[in-house]
Amino acid sequence: MKTIIVYYSLEGSTRKVAERLSEELNADLLELVPVKPIKNNGSKFMAGGGQVMFKKCPKLREYNFNVADYDRVILGTPIWAGCFTPAIRTFLKENELQYKVSAVFTLSGSGKSEGCLKKLKKFCPSILNDANLLDTNNPKNAELNERRIKNFISRVAY
Ligand SMILES: Cc1cc2nc3c(=O)[nH]c(=O)nc-3n(C[C@H](O)[C@H](O)[C@H](O)COP(=O)(O)O)c2cc1C
Question: ∠ at Cα 60 (121, 120), nearest 5°?
């Protein structure tokens, strides 16, 4: 079973989880990086939220990915304005993933992931497993995240 984890991260939380999962699941890793990144400062909510609202598909830095090389794709995304991130939208539009996306993990401040999952499943109806994680930059979330990550791994490791 050849797996790739495809993710976007602005502030590092999603990257941290993606790297951990890549090791534990022996999966390849692909980070999506927009050509014009959102700046990680006070303007990020307006800039990032605006892209989400207008369903923007920002141009990504060139990446190496051939869907035929993989049996499944796991997506990782922060939740922005109740949705998955614009870089993930671009990736989904650029690739004929069909039924290869089998799982997703989301990172958020609030832990509310239902709306985001619903929107993502419209693109990827094959999603069977998900992990709803909280910002890893807040140490208070460590215990809950650890439980949820372990549970996720137990469901997707095969
Ligand atoms: C533009 C923007 C919009 C966000 N919108 C939400 C949101 O709607 N709900 C939520 O719970 N957290 C929201 N957050 C918080 C992030 O989802 C959270 O901090 C996440 O852990 C960031 O992941 P990252 O470190 O991989 O970038 C938002 C953050 C940004 C920058």
Answer: 5
